[in-house]
Design goal:
alpha+beta; Nucleotidyltransferase, domain 5; Ribosomal Protein L22, Chain A; Glucose Oxidase, domain 1; 7-stranded mixed β-sheet; 5-stranded mixed β-sheet; 30% strand
């Protein structure tokens, strides 16, 4: 008789499978799942392991002294998936422009003229058109009165207001002009400079100020200056209103840091690729190096700084020199990130093309053995490092009813995607790749401009709906659900996340379909891409079509749409895929922990 605890230390969760051997049978007693403490594969994991083990023992009605052996996985750390490297940089110099898009502009059309403070109108005499600038110290009726009085002798072409008064001022004007309000940094608006204002009709968008050649026409720009205003014009695409001001030469400057190059180093060859070529070129370069020994970034660049940060972080956590840290896998995904427009007067942002990067640090078995030794000293129980995660996961996956070798598994977690294939004779191959759930959350957070990681997690994990009335919502699939009791007032006319505990409204001024598309696109670019990449690597012929059956395991397999997305993608390769049910009770979770216990029994276990 003997009791073993298989413990899977993951990037997001630590899972325990507690089993007891009686005679020739291994009987599972209990399982547990708790959040991982610290970065996977570091000594900070011990606290979470002890907690998870105690939870499982309490569930089984056992104590620590009943455990004969603890088996932990070879935990390969995955770090750096919180980095986005911008491809196209917003570099605005020389003829600089600044733009803005308020929610409630006033008037219609385009106005071009020199900026002037509203207090200077009485003492100004010019035939040039003027754009009036007023801060929030001036009430809307005072602003309207002053513009009306000045309109008899001056040409007022538009107005820029700090307060949210655009419509109120416009309603009181004798001669209608376009008005842009909510300019929070009104003191940064240069006075005496040429400015253009455009306000479109409700339901339409600006056409001239969002067009680089439209800006060139209004401001008399040459070809070089027109290139410089492209980021600004792009930031105004889709806006109903905008103001652009031409500032003096050199007023706003931004230091340019290139995206840089990545070098994949292998046993027989090195391959270098520019990050600004995008994720497809990066991943194609990675495939040219079959056995990657290390990945390095160009010093002094964005990606070089990211890769160095990974080495320094892991070096500090493991006690190794950063020079000794090896990065063995990388997943690059094209995405977009909001970048603040240089010289903006109201925190304007432009969506810039970027590459999201997740990297994996080479597993140090000696480091895991040190963790096992520290854990054994703390608990007074023998602790050993078990097999590779993917190999253990396939042992656990085979406990799913209806499965048998030959079989392949995809273990989709928070930080990594593992794949393993077992042939009918018991032989197999496994791979451990960077990138999974955390990277999807990062992409959602970046593309939607969210401040909170938890909000992006909610959007990733749960479906959406829009509250149409106090008694009904419309789900993202178009179906309408009615309620007998009125919904909470703070959810009315809002897009909400449908969590098990209730509706959580999102502080996003975006249509539900847009948010849904961002979520699905992020999952496809990470999960589907990595699933195909992993299966290709474990296929004996580098062809996914040579694999017949795939079982999905891991925390991300619990997602409400990931299994469907992966299954649909694999169907194109004529691969049958489905979600596991470990031991017929655990669903897709606990595969590695279960496999660690099963491999102990297969190796002889305790007598």
């Amino acid at each position: 008789m003997g009791m073993v605890a298989g413990i899977d230390i993951g990037n997001a969760t630590t899972e325990v499978a507690l089993a007891e051997r009686r005679g020739g049978e291994l009987r599972f007693l209990a399982s547990s799942t708790i959040p991982t403490t610290g970065i996977k594969g570091t000594e900070a994991n011990i606290k979470g392991v002890v907690h998870a083990l105690r939870v499982a023992l309490d569930s089984a009605g056992r104590s620590l002294r009943d455990v004969d052996l603890i088996r932990i996985n070879e935990a390969a750390p995955v770090i750096g998936d919180v980095a986005m490297e911008t491809i196209t940089e917003t570099v605005i110099t020389e003829s600089t422009m600044i733009g803005h898009n308020p929610a409630t502009p006033g008037g219609l059309g385009i106005g071009v003229g020199q900026t002037i403070r509203i207090d200077d109108l009485p003492v100004t005499s010019t035939a040039e058109p003027l754009i009036v600038v007023a801060d929030r110290r001036h009430a809307y009726d005072d602003v309207a009165r002053r513009i009306n009085e000045a309109g008899d002798r001056l040409t007022i072409a538009g107005a820029i207001l700090q307060a949210d008064d655009g419509t109120l001022v416009h309603n009181r004007l004798q001669s209608k002009i376009p008005i842009v309000d909510e300019v929070s940094l009104i003191d940064k608006v240069p006075i005496g400079m040429l400015a253009a204002i455009e306000v479109a009709e409700v339901g339409r968008i600006v056409e001239t100020l969002s067009n680089p050649f439209g800006l060139a026409t209004l401001f008399g720009l040459d070809a070089a200056d027109t290139k410089q205003v492209v980021p600004l014009a792009r930031s105004l695409v889709g806006n109903r209103s905008a103001v652009v001001i031409k500032t003096p030469k050199g007023d706003v400057k931004e230091r340019r840091i290139p995206a840089g190059t990545l070098t994949f180093r292998g046993e027989n060859r090195n391959v270098e690729v520019d990050v600004d070529r995008g994720s497809e070129a990066i991943m194609a370069s990675a495939q040219q190096v079959r056995a990657i020994d290390d990945i390095v970034g160009q010093p002094g660049t964005n990606v070089g700084g990211m890769m160095e940060k990974v080495r320094v972080t892991m070096g500090g956590l493991t006690g190794h020199s950063p020079r000794d840290i090896r990065i063995t896998d990388l997943l690059a995904v094209d995405t977009q990130v909001p970048k603040q427009v240089s010289g903006g007067i109201a925190n304007e942002f432009s969506m810039e093309a970027a590459v999201g990067i997740a990297v994996m640090v080479k597993t140090d078995r000696l480091q895991m053995q040190r963790i096992a030794a520290d854990m054994a000293a703390e608990l007074g129980i023998r602790v050993e490092v078990g097999g590779v995660e993917a190999d253990m996961a396939i042992r656990g996956a085979l406990t799913t009813p209806g499965t048998a070798a030959p079989i392949a598994i995809l273990d989709i977690g928070a930080g990594s995607t593992d794949a393993s294939v077992m042939h009918a004779d018991g032989s197999g191959t496994s791979i451990h790749l960077a990138g999974a759930g955390n990277m999807v959350t990062l992409m959602i957070q970046s593309e939607l401009g969210l401040d909170a990681w938890d909000t992006a997690e909610d959007i990733k994990r749960h479906p959406l709906a829009r509250v149409e009335t106090v008694f009904n919502i419309r789900h993202e699939d178009g179906t309408v659900q009615f309620f007998d009791e009125p919904l909470p007032p703070h959810t009315y006319a809002r897009v909400v996340v449908l969590k098990p505990e209730g509706m959580v409204p999102l502080d996003l001024d975006l249509p539900m379909e847009t948010i849904r598309q961002v979520r699905i696109r992020a999952k496809e670019r990470v999960f589907v891409t990595n699933a195909v990449r992993a299966l290709r690597k474990v296929s004996p012929t580098d062809n996914v079509r040579d694999i017949d059956f795939v079982v999905l395991v891991g925390g991300s397999a619990l997602d409400f749409e990931i299994p469907q997305l992966v299954t649909k993608a694999l169907a194109e390769y004529r691969v049958v895929a489905g979600r596991a049910n470990i031991r017929g009770t655990e669903g897709p979770r606990n595969a590695v922990a279960t496999g660690l216990a099963l491999s102990w029994a297969a190796e002889g276990g305790a007598s």
